[in-house]
What we know:
38% of the residues lie in helices and 14% in strands.
Amino acid sequence: MHHEFLLLDNALNLAKMKIMKFINSYYVLPERFYTDFKPSIFKKPELVSFNESLAKDLDFDFSAFSQEDLAMMFSGQTSLNGSIFKSLAYAGHQFGHFVPSLGDGRAALMGEVESASGKTFDLQLKGSGPTAFSRRGDGFSALGPALREYLVSESMFHLGIPTTRSLAVVATGDLVYRETASPGGILTRVASSHIRIGTFQYFAARRDTEALEILLNYSINRHYPEHAHLSIGDKALSFLSSVAKKQVELISHWMGIGFIHGVMNTDNMAISGETLDFGPCAFMDHFNYHQVFSFIDKNGRYAYSQQPHILLWNLSRLADCLVPLLGANEASAVEKLNAVLTSIPKLIEQEMRKVFARKLGLDGKESECEDVISQWINYLEETHIDFTWAHFYLDDLLKESPSKDAVSFFPQTQSGKNFFEAWKKLSPVIKLSVNPVYIPRNHLIEEAILKAYQGDFSLFHRLNKRWLKPFHDGGEIEFDLARAPLEQEKIKNTFCGT
């Protein structure tokens, strides 16, 4: 059923609005898929940022609303006709340890909306108060993590990486208590859906085959409708293959941009293939193949180098959940699912090669450049130069008269000499739309958050505007936003912080 998206406030001139429609199809599923939720009451919600471009994509005419109206709306304070708050159930492996009941501990789905293009998206509030899944948590979020996710998710989108997005950040006016007291914040997240590998694990752990079949059919109808006509067993196999392909493409994009997710638990892996959860994430500055940022990742499980391996491990956990849907013969089911899983390493290898071939200007020459890519990665690891600038300057090196900055950037080593000779023999052509000059630098994000806590949002807004256009357009480079951090600015550890 479609519901009109209307504020229940007669003082507003609703006639000017373009209606955003709530579909709420997930709530047609059995009640064990979610729990009811009521947002907490906050002292003085204030709108920090509102994504007008995304709002237009969602076919939402916000012109009839004041900032105060939007703050009330996207903190859950104002009642919405058709928006039904629910917290979703899921389980997950957290750093390899299975937790059978996690769920939305500090988030709630507002419902689904249909965009101007006819696509369906979830709207979710993060940090809006305790839920049935909060356990010992308070369900709130500090403002800093909300600002981080807004900046990074929108930057990822404009870098061309599949991701959830951010519609709004609201400061609640209340304090959130962690190690210290911090201002509270709420993020409105937009996602193709919030179905995770952990959602399947929740029902598999309960041996609820009926729910698994319902969830599989729903997931296919929403994300992979080309498989809807198949029998349930074939659906399961095709679904695993499709999710694997999306996830392989995603993680390869991460590797190509130097992104380290930091918490690739199965409950943070969306079956849509979008980047989900930006808690302890970070972008690599000076190259380290085994770079870890997350403070809680003591053993480097989610290091940069480990992300492709963890992807396969996570997909194997999804396959575990699907076994009951392939019939009574468990051995046969496992064999069929393993056949899909064994194809994934080659798929990862191919996609990674494609990503780095593009970055090196060797599109269409993937079969010729495997050794060159390996040489390049080895050179980066040997020299520890800045990952972003290294790729950005490659184009300069191909010019008849390369700039002094580009030439001096690359340390002279034998491995470097071998790489550049082999690389140039392949006649590379680098596109400026492939290697960005601006990425969400960790030290800039931290500085923006610290300033915001002091009431100054100017750097946050400047970063958000700059990172909407991450590729060089030929104009003057804003070097203070593009450079690598100085030694004293380097972020050595990241924290979830919500």
